[in-house]
Write a structure and sequence with these properties.
The chain has one domain. It is 48% helix and 19% strand. The protein is α+β, with helices and mostly antiparallel strands. The chain is globular and about 45 Å long. Strand 3 and strand 4 form a beta hairpin.
């Protein structure tokens, strides 16, 4: 993917930033980080990073960060990083649909729903492009 455009140092910095963002998101959800299964993580820099993170309670999560909303799903929701992108895409499509179907007058929420749809489509394209997974 676009990672060829990064120097090794830039890629390392981007991965570190996305790792911190993923952990921050989990912490905001009340999930404390214990470790990362790095062999199952995938980085499609500068667009998306997918992390398999183990909590201090022994539970595993897929966590996404990058040019997308940081989000987490249970590890059981997808068998690997590639499948987790499809799961995140579907989750965001449903969230957007729920917002748009509600009677909200809040333009900020409506705008966020549009962002979710856009990012869901982008992530699904990454999921379905086999070049990303070779």
């Amino acid at each position: 993917m676009a990672s060829e455009e990064f120097s090794e140092a830039q890629l390392s910095e981007w991965v570190r930033e996305q790792y911190q963002r993923a952990n921050k998101h989990l912490a905001e959800q009340g999930v404390l980080f214990e470790s990362v299964a790095t062999e199952e993580c995938r980085y499609l820099a500068p667009v998306v990073a997918v992390w398999k993170i183990k909590s201090t309670e022994g539970k595993y999560y897929w966590v996404i960060s990058g040019d997308v909303p940081a989000d987490a799903i249970p590890y059981t929701a997808a068998k690997n990083a590639q499948e987790s992108l499809r799961a995140f895409s579907m989750r965001w499509q449903l969230q957007a649909e729920n917002i748009l179907q509600s009677d909200t007058k809040d333009q900020l929420r409506k705008d966020y729903a549009k962002v979710l749809v856009n990012k869901a489509e982008m992530v699904y394209d990454l999921f379905s492009n086999e070049k990303n997974w070779q």
